[in-house]
Amino acid sequence: MAETEPSAPTYPDLSTQDRTPPAEIPSTQTEDDLWKKEKHDELVKIEDEIDTLRQVLTAKEREASELRKLLGLTPLGILKADINKIQSSQAYKKTVETLKSAEQATASAFSSLGSSMSMKFSEMKNSPTYKSFEEKVEGVGSTIMAKVSGTPRETPAATPDETPQAPITQQPHAGDDLPM
């Protein structure tokens, strides 16, 4: 006795349906009513087909889910299999290879940029202009610190005609006479 397969559900044959563009809108009232009824009937038919397709899709998804359970396939297992499939593809391998070479090129570029900048800073720091500027900044900085802290800056000893200034110990008041 030959085994018989379970009867497969029948689906509407959508390939033979009329695919003509919609007709132009009629000009008279009776033609308009007839045209609207025709289009309404067509809409009802299409919505019925959509409902049928949804039911078929739901049934197929349920059947696929039951088969996965019978085979012991879990969502995590399916995901792992998909990832393995992607990682073994040529496109993935080529992408990884390209990214590795881009990483090496970028690292090399940043390394040479860093050493180039370091060398330029060293050259700049040793230039006479930078040294002159550095000395001026140090002089101004030590003068400000001396005035703020009240200790005299290391200056050459005062000559007999010069009177040494007393260190500043407090803030001047608004009424004080200040030299300008």
TrEMBL record:
It holds the Pfam family TPD52. It comes from the Eukaryota. GO terms for cellular component: cytoplasm. InterPro entries: TPD52. Residues 36-70 form a coiled coil. Residues 1-36, 146-180 are annotated as: Disordered. Keywords: Coiled coil. Belongs to the TPD52 family. This is Tumor protein D52. The lineage of its organism: Eukaryota, Metazoa, Chordata, Tunicata, Ascidiacea.
